[in-house]
């Protein structure tokens, strides 16, 4: 068997074709839809689906790379007859099921193979005790909706993009999980590198200098690759959005490829909105480069440019343009100055964004001139002509030329008079000038211009020489129009033409083109009558032509340009070209084309060359149709090439193995490829030779292998049975004959059935069936059955076929009825959103899915939007053309077939709904924080949601100054995003956003502070200024000058206490005085810097002590009357409200007085916390403190200190508010 490679219409599919001669109506298998790679969570069911075409019907098998698929409970292989889908289901996937799965489809003429990978995401078993924590997880941790819905196009763009473009692409496609994106992208890059290594090993030596697509100012796009191929004949394929597109190498098509050394330059001419998409370059079947052309890069064209406007003085003038696709704003200019909306100028835009209008209000003569409009790289311009309303009588000799053009704002009336009579005394002007003309030699050409007055005569010139009417040249005047007509253009008529009138002139060029031209009779003769020669003879094809030199002459055979060699010679003359092929061979047959090209155009003529020769040998392998003790019947296939003449007959010779002589045993007509030899001896071996005969001679022979007469051979398995119909009482089957009959005729077939869940196969009849179909009635309603078939020949019964798909013995379902309440729920310039209700079950059975179809208004064909039925009762149609009209219908489907379609009552236009007047306002919820702290070096991302109609203008400011280029602003429908990829401290400030449209404006501000954990303070020194005190000084932290919220905390320890105690916090200077310094003790101090991000390392002081001897003195105590010093408790210093960031330390303190000394108890939310280890309390000389080392959200609440003694009690309360870190959105 000879296998030939064949290109599939579906990328990634490999086709092996067994033969090149396939009968009409038959074809080798191919994939209409191939299985797609899957990434699925462990425990779910993975489903691969494939749709396969080919005739006869292909046999489909599934396999995997790292194991077998014998477990029927694990792998379910089915075939959906309604959808014509072959389905593989992997039940409850585990990590061991992650593999590459192969789908193969084969029939008599070939085999198609494709692969799909299965990636399994393994789940981690959480501890049940942590379930409460899982419930408290923020929903922000889950993958975003956009991330789940990313399609393959986004990954192709990221794979080919530079790292600096990741941020832009993620914003454009709404990717928020950057870490997840980078992880998957690295995985895809590894897979791509493995695939690229295969390419480099097989097809490519090296790939470098990949330049992504760029749009030029001429309205074209191009991208480049430097690539060295191992085989220069390797096919280079270009795909757009997965569809292969043709291209040319001579810049004649829309898509072109130009090769310069190792550089391959792909270009796209005349860009249109539909040219946007993902472009891929493949070498043979493997992708080497991908690049994306966004629709926003497509230049906008003017479908209706600006036109000259005539306007009377003191009236309004209107300029209007229409664009090829929507744009919210254009740039209007006058005298190289950009126009702004105001009292003088106004701008309007249609709802669809296609039609733009400029209004020049209260036109004055000074407004006359050229106005222009720019849309991207395209522009359009036109004149504004102003006609004065003041009919003043002014004598010509009173007009002074210098004063005539003087523009004096002090004398507006004089200016109006000058403008009114300017045309009267300076003559007519051109309304439309001459335009360049390209004329074909021997044809006519016309030059036309138009003046502002029909009373003005003019003169025509060519290359400075005045022209008069003559033979072949006519000059006409029709009112304001002046024409020059060349009736028979020749080379001498080329040149520069000029028309002059009243001191004004207009010039243009006439270019004479003389493209190649081939005589029409000669072209018709060559195209209809082929050139026929016999093998070994010479072939000559001569074509006369005419046209301007130099002429490029190229001959092609079957699309490939011919080059001269020892057999082929190309003769090129000034008026003809001749192709000579010496000693023609059969392979020289084909389509011959001559292509002529000069600087004026091209011409082509095609003919067919047929070289006659003897046929090739018949094709094998020879098939033994019957082999018995009395006869042998064989079959072969016709020759691959009949030599250009029909096969007249086949001669058959036979040789008994062991003998040297060949005996001619028969001859059959050319239309027959079978032969029966009935004179054979049982048990002896024979060999046969077959030759093909045509009018040119006899072919070489095809020889069979040894065939033993009467050898037993069982038939092969037939094709799997197909379910023709099924009901509750009978099931009808049909099947195909086996490829291998075993050398004898098929006598019948044995059919067996098996219930689902049973291992027992039972025959459906006592005798073999003669036909390849049957009806089984011995069934139980509601049960599922599968069937297998085996063929029977003279040797006996062969192997059973692959079982059929399971079928349920039940009456067929009724197709569903029409869907209800079909309506449009949303629309844009490229999409329509639909919804509907399920159909009633009274007129049909329940629907299992729905097909959505659209039909453009200018077409009669309905186009399906979904290849597989959707189960939801809503659908969004994408990829529509802006402002086009479409008809839409929805059809319900189930196992009984399709129901009747339900169509919308009227057509729908692809455009957004009408704009509703809506004043701008922000849509911020309670989670929005007006203050956020960001660590230096991290990303700042602020998303502001708003609502406004029409679309508002969005302005960002920082500290009342426009945002710098460090920040990227992205505005979409209802969302504005501020993004700073890598922040530093200079980004701190007050950020404000203002949104405004014609119905109002609104502003919103937030403060962003960029900081980091502070550096520790500098050197700590001490000084005693007052006895019994010590003043501690320290050098400021280096971060103090960047952070105005940075402060200090001082802690102290003496030699009698080993624990450090907070002496003071929230100190915004660089010194503090410690009191109650006791002589004889050593003191140590620590100074910390603190800000919104945390606490620095401490700066420690050296030991401090005071050694002072006390003088002896005596005190004479006075005698006082003893008073009652007892008093009830009272708070001399109360508690204050505390706002503490999450995780920071909180210190609460108050002062209490009383005698006897009161006992202080602390409460939180009326619950005592004295025995709670999370809280530390102290009472030193009436100063009561509560310390919370690291506050948590649960510490929020009301705190109360109660002081009690025998005379009463006092209460002091406060609140602690824990500040949680702000999110970035």
From TrEMBL:
One of its GO terms (cellular component) is Z disc. The gene is igfn1.3. Belongs to the protein kinase superfamily. CAMK Ser/Thr protein kinase family. Pfam families: fn3 (PF00041), I-set (PF07679), THB (PF18362). Interacts with FLNC. Interacts with KY. This is Immunoglobulin-like and fibronectin type III domain-containing protein 1. The keyword Cytoplasm applies. Residues 29-107, 428-511, 914-1011, 1129-1212 form the Ig-like domain. SMART domains: FN3, IG, IGc2. InterPro entries: FN3_dom, FN3_sf, Ig-like_dom, Ig-like_dom_sf, Ig-like_fold, Ig_I-set, Ig_sub, Ig_sub2. It is found in: Cytoplasm, Myofibril, Sarcomere, Z line; Nucleus. Residues 617-714, 717-811, 815-914, 1016-1111 form the Fibronectin type-III domain. One of its GO terms (biological process) is sarcomere organization. PROSITE patterns: FN3, IG_LIKE. CDD domains: FN3 (cd00063). It comes from Erpetoichthys calabaricus (Rope fish). Keywords: Coiled coil, Cytoplasm, Immunoglobulin domain, Nucleus, Repeat.
């Amino acid at each position: 068997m000879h296998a030939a490679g064949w290109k599939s219409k579906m990328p990634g599919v490999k086709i092996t074709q067994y033969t090149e001669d396939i009968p009409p109506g038959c074809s080798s298998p191919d994939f209409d839809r191939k299985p797609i790679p899957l990434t699925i969570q462990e425990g779910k069911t993975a489903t691969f689906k494939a749709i396969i075409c080919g005739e006869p019907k292909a046999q489909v098998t599934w396999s995997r790379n790292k194991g077998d698929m014998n477990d029927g409970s694990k792998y379910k292989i089915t075939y959906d007859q309604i959808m014509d889908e072959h389905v593989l289901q992997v039940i409850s996937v585990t990590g061991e099921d992650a593999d590459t799965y192969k789908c193969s489809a084969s029939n008599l003429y070939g085999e198609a193979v494709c692969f799909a990978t299965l990636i399994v995401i393994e789940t981690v078993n959480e501890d049940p005790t942590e379930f409460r924590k899982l419930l408290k997880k923020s929903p922000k941790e889950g993958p975003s909706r956009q991330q789940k819905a990313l399609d393959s196009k986004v990954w192709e763009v990221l794979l080919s993009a530079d790292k600096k473009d990741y941020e832009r692409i993620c914003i454009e496609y709404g990717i928020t999980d950057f870490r997840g994106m980078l992880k998957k992208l690295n995985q895809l890059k590894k897979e791509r590198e493995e695939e690229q290594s295969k390419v480099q090993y097989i097809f490519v030596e090296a790939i470098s200098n990949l330049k992504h697509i760029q749009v030029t100012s001429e309205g074209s796009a191009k991208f480049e690759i430097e690539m060295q191929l191992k085989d220069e004949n390797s096919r280079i394929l270009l795909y757009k959005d997965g569809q292969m597109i043709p291209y040319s190498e001579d810049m004649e098509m829309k898509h072109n490829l130009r090769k310069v050394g190792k550089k391959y330059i792909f270009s796209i001419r005349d860009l249109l909105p539909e040219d946007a998409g993902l472009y891929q370059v493949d070498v043979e079947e493997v992708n080497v480069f991908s690049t994306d052309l966004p629709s926003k890069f497509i230049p906008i064209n003017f479908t209706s440019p600006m036109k000259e406007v005539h306007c009377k003085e003191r009236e309004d003038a209107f300029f209007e343009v229409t664009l090829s696709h929507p744009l919210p704003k254009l740039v209007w200019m006058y005298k190289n100055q950009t126009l702004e909306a105001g009292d003088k100028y106004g701008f309007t835009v249609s709802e669809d964004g296609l039609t733009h209008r400029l209004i020049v209000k209260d036109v004055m003569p000074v407004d006359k001139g050229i106005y222009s409009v720019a849309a991207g790289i395209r522009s359009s311009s036109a004149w504004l002509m102003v006609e004065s309303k003041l009919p003043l009588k002014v004598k010509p000799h009173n007009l002074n030329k210098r004063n005539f053009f003087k523009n004096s704002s002090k004398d507006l009336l004089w200016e109006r008079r000058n403008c009114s009579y300017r045309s009267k005394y300076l003559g007519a002007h051109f309304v439309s000038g001459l335009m360049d003309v390209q004329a074909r030699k021997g044809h006519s050409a016309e030059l036309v211009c138009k003046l502002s007055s029909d009373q003005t005569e003019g003169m025509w010139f060519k290359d400075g020489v005045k022209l008069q009417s003559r033979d072949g040249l006519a000059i006409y005047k029709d009112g304001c129009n002046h024409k020059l007509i060349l009736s028979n253009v020749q080379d001498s008529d080329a040149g520069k033409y000029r028309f002059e009138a009243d001191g004004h002139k207009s010039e243009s060029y006439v270019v004479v083109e003389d493209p190649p031209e081939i005589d029409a009779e000669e072209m018709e003769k060559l195209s209809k009558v082929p050139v026929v020669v016999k093998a070994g003879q010479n072939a000559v094809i001569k074509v006369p032509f005419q046209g301007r030199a130099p002429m490029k002459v190229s001959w092609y055979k079957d699309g490939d340009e011919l080059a001269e060699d020892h057999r082929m010679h190309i003769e090129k003359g000034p008026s003809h070209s001749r192709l000579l092929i010496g000693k023609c061979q059969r392979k020289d047959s084909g389509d011959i084309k001559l292509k002529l090209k000069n600087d004026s155009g091209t011409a082509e003529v095609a003919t067919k060359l047929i070289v006659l020769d003897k046929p090739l040998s018949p094709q094998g392998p020879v098939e033994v149709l019957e082999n018995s003790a009395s006869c042998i019947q064989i079959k072969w296939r016709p020759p691959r090439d009949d030599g250009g003449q029909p096969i007249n007959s086949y001669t058959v010779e036979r040789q008994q193995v062991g003998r040297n002589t060949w005996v001619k045993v028969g001859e059959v007509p050319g239309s027959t490829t079978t032969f029966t030899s009935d004179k054979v001896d049982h048990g002896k071996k024979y060999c046969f030779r077959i030759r093909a005969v045509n009018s040119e001679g006899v072919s070489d022979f095809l020889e069979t292998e040894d065939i033993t007469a009467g050898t037993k051979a069982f038939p092969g398995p037939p094709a799997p049975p197909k379910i023709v119909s099924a009901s509750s009482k009978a099931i009808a089957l049909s099947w195909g004959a086996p490829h291998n009959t075993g050398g004898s005729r098929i006598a019948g077939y044995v059919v067996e059935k098996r219930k689902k869940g049973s291992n027992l196969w039972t025959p459906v009849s006592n005798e073999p069936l003669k036909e390849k179909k049957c009806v089984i009635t011995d069934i139980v309603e509601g049960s599922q059955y599968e069937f297998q078939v085996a063929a029977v020949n003279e040797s006996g019964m062969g192997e059973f076929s692959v079982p059929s798909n399971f079928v349920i013995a039940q009456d067929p379902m009724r197709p569903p009825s029409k869907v209800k309440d079909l309506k449009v729920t949303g629309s844009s310039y490229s999409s329509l959103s639909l919804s509907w209700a399920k159909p009633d079950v009274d007129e049909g059975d329940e629907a299992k899915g729905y097909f959505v179809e659209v039909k453009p208004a200018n077409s009669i064909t309905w186009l399906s939007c979904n290849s597989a039925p959707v189960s939801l009762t809503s659908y969004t149609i994408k990829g529509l053309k802006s402002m086009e009209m479409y008809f839409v219908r929805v059809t319900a489907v189930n196992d009984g077939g399709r129901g009747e379609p339900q169509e919308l009552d009227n057509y729908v236009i692809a455009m957004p709904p009408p704009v509703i007047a809506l004043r701008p306002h922000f849509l911020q919820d309670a989670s929005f924080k007006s203050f956020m702290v960001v660590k230096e070096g991290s990303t700042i991302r602020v998303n502001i949601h708003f609502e406004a109609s029409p679309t508002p203008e969005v302005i960002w400011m920082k500290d009342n100054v426009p945002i710098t280029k460090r920040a990227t602003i992205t505005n979409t429908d209802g969302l504005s995003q501020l993004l700073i990829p890598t922040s530093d401290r200079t980004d701190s400030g007050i950020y404000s956003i203002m949104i405004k449209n014609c119905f109002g404006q609104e502003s919103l501000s937030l403060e962003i502070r960029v900081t980091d954990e502070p550096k520790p303070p500098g050197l700590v020194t001490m000084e005693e200024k007052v006895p019994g005190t010590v003043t501690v000084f320290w050098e400021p932290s280096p971060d103090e000058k960047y952070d105005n919220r940075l402060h200090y905390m001082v802690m102290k320890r003496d030699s009698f206490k080993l624990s450090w105690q907070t002496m003071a916090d929230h100190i915004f200077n660089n010194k503090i005085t410690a009191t109650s310094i006791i002589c004889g003790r050593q003191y140590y101090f620590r100074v910390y810097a603190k800000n919104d991000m945390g606490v620095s390392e401490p700066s420690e002081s050296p030991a401090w002590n005071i050694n002072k001897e006390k003088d002896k003195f005596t005190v004479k105590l006075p005698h006082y009357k003893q008073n009652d010093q007892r008093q009830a408790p009272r708070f001399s210093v109360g508690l204050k409200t505390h706002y503490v960031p999450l995780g920071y330390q909180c210190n609460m303190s108050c002062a209490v007085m009383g005698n006897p000394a009161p006992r202080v108890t602390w409460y939180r939310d009326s619950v005592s916390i004295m025995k709670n280890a999370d809280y530390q309390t102290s009472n030193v000389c009436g100063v009561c403190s509560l310390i919370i080392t690291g506050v948590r959200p649960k510490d929020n609440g009301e705190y109360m200190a109660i002081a009690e003694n025998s005379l009463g009690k006092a209460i002091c309360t406060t609140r602690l508010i824990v500040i949680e870190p702000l999110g970035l959105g």
